Amino acid sequence: MTTDFPHPTAASRATDRPGDTSPFALGLLLRRAHWRAAAVMTEALRPLGIELRHFAVLLVLVDRGPTVQRDLAAATGSDKAGIMRVVDDLERMGLAVRKTVPGDRRVRAVEITPQGVELFDAAHVAAQPLAERLVAELGPGEPERLTDLLTRFAHPAQA
Q1: Which residue of 48, 113, 117, 137 has the fewest CB atoms within a 10 Å radius of its CB?
Q2: CA 83: distance to chain centroid?
Q3: Half-sphere exposure (CA, 13 Å, Cβ side) for 124?
Q4: Whole-angstrom Cα distance, residue 99 to residue 152?
């Protein structure tokens, strides 16, 4: 079978291993780094009784204040059904409440409760030693450099 596509050399094939020079290498490294960081964050949140999806919503609520559910979905990369389940969970735990938006009783804004703020702050305390372990193999100044590079990469307009 023949194709009109050039055959890649072994050096350019994506492998997901250190030293990969394929055009996919950066994306694959970022995916692996995300998995590792998410595992650490999950470990920090587990004793508090929440998951990353819950923390993501609390993060938006702390940052933006009361937020309508469609904006929460957009901010967290969730869909409408998914965000409703997360907000249901947060309400059951007493970490957030839904409130009617003045002027449109059909729209509900989600607001973090004082208990939610307390848990959000506790999550940061719990995550600190784990976050330090995450970058333990980096040298002096490298964690800050990595943060700077990733910030510029993730938010190019703000660089």
Answers
A1: 137
A2: 14
A3: 8
A4: 36
Rounded CA separation 3/131 (Å): 48
Q: Rounded distance, CA 106 to CA 37, Å? A: 38
Cα 84–chain centre separation: 18
Q: Coil, strand, or helix at residue 138?
A: coil
State both tokens at 45.
């949140």
Cα–Cα distance measured from residue 26 to residue 20, given in angstroms and rounded to the nearest whole number: 9
SS3 category, 99: strand
Strand, coil or helix: 66: coil
Q: How many residues does the chain have?
A: 159
Q: Which two tokens stand for residue 98?
A: 């839904």
Say if residues 51 and 42 touch (Cβ distance below 8 Å): yes
Gap between the Cα atoms of 78 and 45, Å rounded: 19
Whole-number Å distance between alpha carbons of 48 and 54: 11
pLDDT tens figures, 92-142: 999 999 998 888 878 889 999 999 999 999 999 999 999 899 999 999 999
Residue 12 carries which DSSP code? G
In the block, residue with structure tokens 């904006």: 71
